[in-house]
Design a protein that fits this description.
Distance between the termini: 49 Å
Low-confidence stretches: none
Radius of gyration: 19 Å
Strand order of the largest sheet: 1-3-2
Number of helices: 4
Number of domains: 1
Mean pLDDT: 94
Length: about 130
């Protein structure tokens, strides 16, 4: 019998990729995600390739995964894809301690983040407008 197939949450001209538990704070990851929002995928890949941020490589891999999902799973044209959404969520935070003077300790928090990238195919009519 089994469970009914879940409804597709995205529209027919969209594909997404999710990277979970990335070892960087959400604030720092959002700076890189903000850099690619609304751009065509080839321009976004170029920006991520030459970015000096450490996390740009992980964001680039996630974007390439979203492009591959669009091409292989949803038969979308790669040349007409744009980064429709790139959003960041909080994940776990590891708590560690740092030894200080006089027998005391300070708390060190090591945050993790989630990244979701949605690419959308834009029609040729929309590009001309």
């Amino acid at each position: 019998m089994g469970k009914a197939k879940a409804e597709r949450r995205l529209s027919e001209n969209e594909a997404r990729a999710v990277a979970r538990t990335i070892r960087v704070s959400p604030q720092k990851l959002n700076l890189v995600a903000q850099m690619i929002r609304g751009k065509k995928v080839d321009a976004a890949l170029a920006d991520l390739t030459f970015s000096r941020k450490r996390i740009a490589e992980t964001v680039k891999k996630t974007l390439e995964s979203a492009i591959a999902n669009a091409e292989n799973n949803h038969d979308l044209d790669v040349d007409s894809l744009v980064v429709a959404e790139a959003y960041v969520g909080k994940s776990i935070t590891m708590k560690r301690f740092h030894a200080r003077g006089r027998g005391r300790a300070s708390r060190v928090e090591k945050p993790f983040s989630h990244l979701t990238i949605v690419v959308r195919e834009i029609a040729a009519i929309e590009e001309a407008a």
